Amino acid sequence: MNFNLRNLRQRDIAIIVVVLTLVAGVLWYFYMYQPSQDRVAELESEIVRLETEIRRGEDARRNLPDLRLAVALLEEERRVFLSQLPTESQVAALIDSLRLTSDQAGTLINSFGQSTAQTNVQDVRAIGFTIATEGTFVQTMGFIDTLEDLQRFTKLNTVGLSVADDQVDPVLNSSVGFTIYVFTGTDPGER
To answer: How far, in Å, CA of 72 to CA of 68, rounded?
Structure first.
């Protein structure tokens, strides 16, 4: 069978042209139009995302002066707080003042020891202590109040009380665990 274009009738040519046009249309739809529509949808979602980021960025830029002021205030508060903490070299004097306070309160210190303490604050070290005292209720509470008054740099962790005898004003044995926070960094300001 020999194929010759001259032997085709006009109707056959029209059918071939229509079929080729349909094939070209299908190819154009799947290889050009559909990927373009997908890309347009992808770009539109990217535009929405970028507009959201732009709004956030503009909000952040408007809030930047307030944030800088807040950071400066917090840094000043931190500097003031750290300047009020004792240094490691001042812990011995602090412990000696606790001994004097115990004497003034009328309590007897039976034991004093160091325990472990954790902290995650830069330039601050936590030193744990336990102290066992003996005294009347008023004396013991007076001494514990003195420890609580050191709250800027001291934290009471545990307080245990037990009665030593059955007198009218019994002697209390107390065990107090507390943590002293000391400054270990460079000078935060006036001390």
So the answer is: 6
